[in-house]
Amino acid sequence: MNLEQLKREIQGCKKCDLAHGRTNIVFGCGNEKAKLMLIGEGPGRDEDLQGIPFVGAAGQLLNKVLEAAEINREKIYIANIVKCRPPGNRVPNRKEAAACLPWLWRQLEIIRPRIVVLLGSTALKNLIRPDALITKLRGKWMESKSGIKIMPTYHPAALLRDPSKKKLVWEDFKKIRDEYKKIMNEVS
Ligand code: URA
Fold it and tell me: How many CB atoms lie within 10 A of CB 64?
């Protein structure tokens, strides 16, 4: 199974009510062999229209952070907790996230990244534990049972609302950059 096959399988998905309001399923984008994967919350308006994650205002800011950290967006993989836009950009609920997560697990199985960055509270709560706090855990490395290094940080949309968080995210991305460089050196 590869990403293209999985993407075909997801077409027409009606596993939750978000299917009704979507223009496009935002499957994910990037490199199938990525060592680094970023996971956000869910598509916004621009992403829903284009079918690509992080292309709106938060995406522009994310691009700047990646550029500053010398991380090439095309070499990594970017996906979300839910693949269809929640109405009015609300946070996806537990039922929607639970319905969509098996797709993300399968993407992770195919890509097998060495580092996963959780962008914001929704990714953290759905992938680590429901009571996890982004304010407490951001910037701290965790490790999955299979040895994936996991780093939560603030969502770029949170930086748009509160620019004082930019400094903290940059601290986190310096750690991510260093680990990513180390891994890229190992595999090259
Ligand atoms: N916010 C997200 O969490 N994901 C996107 O793809 C865009 C904005």
Answer: 13
